[in-house]
Amino acid sequence: MELHNLNDIAAFVSSVNAGSFTAAAKQLGLTRSAVGKSIVRLEARLQVRLLNRTTRSLSMTDDGQVLYERCVGVLQDLDDVEDALAFRRSTPSGRLRMSLPVALGRLHVLQHIERCLKDWPSLSVDITFSDRLVDLIDEGFDLAMRIGPPKEDSRLLTRTVAYQQMITCASPKYLAEHPQPQTPDDLSEHQCLHFVSGGRLLPWNFRVNDRSLSVSP
């Protein structure tokens, strides 16, 4: 159904409910002439007379009664749909699928999600804890939190939510048995732990004298 057809039906139902074109025009935010033209256009399309018009009142014909009874419920259903969608926009609801890094998700993010669920009981969250870089679209995720620079993907929207600071550290026992490194290059002589991403070891990144330095111990 084309939009102007629906508008014509709305003008007809409003005219019946209000009792006149003038009152219907006020309800719809239109002119009396526009409402009258909608009724004429609707009657011409259906090839029936819908309303008996006098200078003082409107009354439905038998065909008008049939159309009114069928359409008044349809328009109410459309109003209900609009109200439901407006509620969904103002109040989070439905099912949200998330992918979170294991440690970050459990230690720092989960507590905030629990608080959101208390505030928005119509929302449910399905969380997958994984350090794997999931494909949000192919695997059906709505949202993912990742550590590091965002991956370039025109299909996704990204936003930085926090920053983390990395430090270089060692246990006292290890330093008692090995010489303490003085520069990042010294790390090549030490036993170091690495993060793994996408099947590869991630380098250690430093900032020395305003210069970025990447080291693979």
Automatic annotation (TrEMBL):
Q: What InterPro entries does the record point to? A: LysR-type_TF_proteobact-type, LysR_HTH_N, LysR_subst-bd, WH-like_DNA-bd_sf, WH_DNA-bd_sf
SUPFAM superfamilies from the UniProt entry: Periplasmic binding protein-like II (SSF53850), Winged helix' DNA-binding domain (SSF46785)
Q: Where is the HTH lysR-type domain?
A: 4-61
Q: Which Pfam families match?
A: HTH_1 (PF00126), LysR_substrate (PF03466)
What top-level branch of life does the organism fall under?
Bacteria
Q: Name one GO biological process term.
A: DNA-templated transcription
For this UniProt record, the keywords arranged alphabetically read as follows: DNA-binding, Transcription, Transcription regulation
The protein's GO terms of the molecular function aspect are: DNA-binding transcription factor activity; sequence-specific DNA binding
Family of this protein: Belongs to the LysR transcriptional regulatory family.
Q: Please give the name of this protein.
A: Transcriptional regulator, LysR family
Source species: Pseudomonas syringae pv. coriandricola
